[in-house]
Design brief:
The complex is a heterodimer of chains A (about 190) and B (about 550).
Chain A lengths: L1 H24 L1 H9 L3 H26 L3 H32 L2 E2 L3 E2 L6 H37 L9 H25 L6
Antiparallel strand pairs in A: 1-2
Helix pairs in contact in A: 1-2, 1-5, 2-5, 3-4, 3-6, 4-5, 5-6
Chain B lengths: L27 H5 L4 H29 L10 H36 L8 H23 L13 H5 L4 H28 L12 H33 L12 H35 L6 H14 L15 H13 L1 H15 L8 H24 L1 H7 L3 H31 L5 H28 L13 H31 L52
Helix pairs in contact in B: 2-3, 2-4, 2-16, 3-4, 3-6, 3-7, 3-8, 3-14, 4-6, 6-7, 7-8, 7-9, 8-11, 8-12, 8-14, 9-11, 11-12, 12-14, 12-15, 14-15, 15-16
The chains are: A mainly alpha (about 190), B mainly alpha (about 550).
């Protein structure tokens, strides 16, 4: 699983490297783009994800101690936090940006200076958060699977590899967000 | 390597094993839903051979076309599609998977004394992903083809061509995941499933080579995947990631592509180098000279391969200092390769060499790879590269490494382990003849291309000035000989399945755990888990099968 996560680091890495090069080249446009993002929702989502990491860690702990009901409770909580994140992401942020005409290729009507470069920023925003959201969806699927398995009593003390591995994955996806949030929302000396 | 003795493995009977993985179950489902690594190797063998034929046909059409300066039979657009098909199919669907997924899948568990790979279902899944990718690629070919070259350079691929770039890029994207899963599977297998006593420095060098390759799979493939995603998105949404007209930067694409692309070529060659180490040791009856250096050189290559990508971009406008760095690193990567070549030749020294077909391929590999490698050093020299960039010199260079190296190694390995895979011997005379024909045909095909490139003939053109015709005809003639050389094994290997003599467990009297079980092996590979008590390639120490009985 650690090896798989290395793969994932490189996967996001290519995209992040491209993003950073363009941020360096077109800094002012990227700053403008960044200012159009809903930073409050972004911050809320960061908090939601950090909470989900906590419940995930507690779930792994519960699995290791063989406490089945506790495990299920924490897994369900993690799932709820994950879904809340996705709901905020798609339902509020993306919708808001789409309606503002900031969705490249679909509905892009921004006409300020450097419109092309702002579009590029928005493109990276959608690509990075989209890829991240895809990982969240997979993670939610894994959570549902784990909940079902746990309910059937598939895990016991010492037999909870699946939970631990899913935990690794979940934390990884969270950490990606921890990088994405400042890179996308907080650039340009906004605060 | 060696071993627990034959008795511990229920004395594999001489001749053809009565019960084995091939006749354990019958029916199409028992193959398509198998989780047996040996059967999956066969699935890969059939599918990669199919792609080899597709890529080979495209090459045939190209060489036919180049017989005449104005082009013999193809429209220039069609020619562009042909070399794109040839490059994409050969690199992503034949060379990259061939040795790891066919020989690697079959041999890794056998060589380390395991029942199967660590994740058998994942192994099968990799094959299905691979086939899906292949189907998507074939779709893009049938739907009208792609004409960007296998490198998908932007902005050509994103803004200018009207061919099926999205589906071709999607095929490359999907096939990357197949490779990642295979690499992951191999790494875990090699770490966790070695037989008792089989320490890291007793492993066959083939395992070391595939271990290094797997790391490249895992680290390089995600980068090409995300790059292809960006290409597809740019084409689809018309945003300027790479197209300068839209505010993007095409050089960024080249950086991303070659960050994957150069490690990729080591994915192609490293496994074959592992095969060669096995062959040289087996047919000169000596332990590989400098075992640990050869093992570490695989890793040296894998690591340095990630910091040489800029040598593809000397004329793409990167800074002089970056150029100097990449030039120096590219020369540095020649060192571990040279270590291997020197150690193989040192192994031959005072060995009792015999020239069976696999050995002919191995010796051919050493010669051709040396030429390919040394011309690589020419190209790593910045000043010379400006002159030779995008000429046939480059084409000849990488074909010497890819065909003369990687495919020779694959063919050698296939001939060496064919008796193990099928339990049957092929006719040695025909096999040696085909090795010889391939060697001659290959040199005649690509030797003249060095000269053509040096004279200034550029790559990727359907037409050329008349003064290059003689050399081009030589090259095309060589290609036809090469084609005969590749067709012959297809015939006599199939022939051997029905009419070949029974091979017995160890026809080459070679060392290694895979030779200590029956041919073809039983479904579970070994009757009992072997215990290893010797170094790898312990030739000459004592007759094989004389160690103590293992539990």
């Amino acid at each position: 699983m650690w090896i798989f996560l290395c793969t994932e680091v490189l996967f996001f890495g290519g995209l992040l490297a491209s993003y950073n090069i363009y941020r360096y080249l077109y800094f002012s446009a990227f700053r403008t783009g960044s200012h159009h993002l809903a930073v409050v929702w972004g911050a809320t989502n960061t908090a939601v994800l950090i909470c989900s990491s906590l419940t995930m860690a507690l779930a792994v702990r519960a699995a290791q101690m063989g406490k089945r009901n506790l495990l299920i409770t924490f897994l369900v909580l993690t799932l709820i936090f994950g879904l809340a994140f996705l709901a905020i992401k798609f339902g509020f942020e993306w919708r808001h940006e789409y309606l503002d005409g900031l969705a490249p290729g679909v509905n892009f009507t921004y006409t300020g200076p450097n419109a092309r470069h702002v579009e590029l920023f928005m493109f990276f925003y959608f690509a990075l958060t989209g890829l991240h959201a895809l990982h969240m969806i997979v993670g939610a699927g894994v959570m549902i699977g784990l909940i079902i398995m746990a309910a059937r009593g598939a895990f016991s003390k010492g037999h909870c590899n699946a939970v631990e591995i899913a935990g690794l994955y979940w934390h990884f996806v969270d950490i990606v967000w921890i990088f994405l949030f400042p890179l996308l929302y907080l650039i340009g000396g906004r605060y | 390597m060696g071993t627990a003795n034959a008795a511990a493995l229920q004395s594999p009977a001489e001749g053809y094993a009565a019960e084995n993985y091939l006749n354990a179950k019958y029916g199409i489902k028992s193959w398509l839903l198998t989780t047996d690594h040996k059967r999956i190797a066969w699935l890969y063998f059939l599918s990669t051979t199919f792609f080899f034929i597709v890529g080979g046909l495209a090459a045939t059409l190209m060489r036919l076309n180049l017989i005449q300066p104005q082009g013999l039979l193809l429209e220039p657009e069609t020619y562009n599609k042909m070399f794109t098909i040839h490059g994409t199919v050969m690199i992503f669907f034949f060379l990259a998977p061939a040795v790891p997924t066919v020989l690697g899948n079959f041999l890794i568990p056998m060589m380390i004394g395991a029942r199967d790979v660590a994740f058998p279902k994942l192994n099968l899944l990799s094959w299905y992903i691979f086939i899906t990718a292949g189907m998507v690629l074939l779709y893009s070919v049938i739907a009208g083809g792609v004409d960007t070259g296998w490198t998908f350079y932007t902005p050509l691929s994103t803004s200018y061509v009207n061919t099926h770039v999205i589906s071709a890029a999607m095929a490359v994207f999907i096939s990357g995941f197949s490779s990642i899963l295979t690499g992951l599977n191999f790494i875990v297998t090699i770490h966790k499933m070695r037989a008792p006593g089989l320490t890291w420095f007793r492993l066959p060098l083939f395992i070391w080579a595939l271990y290094a390759t797997s790391f490249i799979f895992v680290l390089a493939m995600p980068v090409i995947a995300i790059t292809m995603v960006l290409v597809m998105l740019e084409r689809f949404f018309h945003v300027g990631i790479f197209d300068p007209a839209l505010g993007g930067d095409p050089v960024l694409f080249q950086h991303l592509f070659w960050f994957f692309g150069h490690p990729e070529v080591y994915i192609l060659i490293l496994p074959s180098m592992g095969v060669i180490s096995e062959l040289i040791a087996a047919f000169s009856r000596r332990r590989i000279f400098g075992y640990s250096l050869v093992a570490f050189s695989s890793f040296g290559i894998a690591i340095v391969s990630f910091i040489v990508w800029g040598h593809h971009m000397f004329v793409s406008g990167q800074s002089v200092y970056a150029g100097i760095f990449f030039s120096a690193m590219s020369m540095a990567v020649a060192i571990p390769s040279a270590i291997k070549v020197f150690n193989w030749t040192a192994t031959l020294y005072k060995g009792s060499i015999s020239f069976e077909a696999p050995m002919l391929y191995a010796l051919g590999f050493i010669g051709l790879f040396t030429i390919g490698g040394l011309t690589g050093v020419f190209l790593a020299t910045m000043g010379l590269d400006v002159f030779l960039h995008d000429t046939y010199f480059v084409v000849a260079h990488f074909h010497y490494v890819m065909v003369g190296g990687a495919i020779m190694g694959y063919m050698g390995g296939l001939h060496y382990w064919w008796p193990k895979m099928t339990g049957k011997m092929y006719p040695d005379y025909w096999a040696r003849l085909s090795a010889f024909i391939i060697f001659v045909g290959f040199n005649l095909t690509f030797g003249p291309q060095f000269i053509l490139g040096f004279l200034g003939m550029p790559r990727r053109y359907a037409i050329y000035p008349a003064q290059f015709q003689t050399l081009n005809i030589m090259s095309s003639a060589g290609a036809s000989i090469l084609a005969v050389g590749y067709l012959m094994p297809m015939i006599y290997l199939i022939w051997s399945l029905k009419y070949g003599a029974d091979a017995g467990p160890n026809p080459w009297k070679a060392k290694g755990l895979e030779w200590e079980t029956a041919s073809p092996p039983p479904t579970h590979n070994f009757e009992r888990t072997p215990v290893v008590t010797e170094e790898a390639y312990a030739y000459g120490s004592e007759p094989a099968h004389a160690a103590t009985v293992a539990s």
